[in-house]
Amino acid sequence: MLTYFLCFILFSIGVYCVLRKRNLIKIIIGLGIIEYAGNLFFALIGYRTEGRSPILTQDQAIKNMVDPLPQALVLTAIVIGLAVTALMVAIAIRIYEKYGTFDITKINKLKG
Fold this sequence. Notes:
The protein is mainly α. Helix content is 71%, strand content 0%. It contains four helices and no strands.
């Protein structure tokens, strides 16, 4: 139960970064923290204490297997998250080249 609470705290830190920070790079880092908190949560859902890998053999009974589906979903989410993060960094670099700042309040003032 403590680990789920720590995932929630990590998620809350990411939400704080996204909502309160005005620097684009800090916002991207906050989104990354949110993503990692979600991935950690899904990996913890599939975890079992003293669990074994889900490989069936003829001499072993099916007892206390780890669920492989959350692990597969997390691996897919990591790849998609990496692509999204790379896209956000590329957009932030283009914004910096055009406006000369990462501060979103100054960028909104330059809009026109």
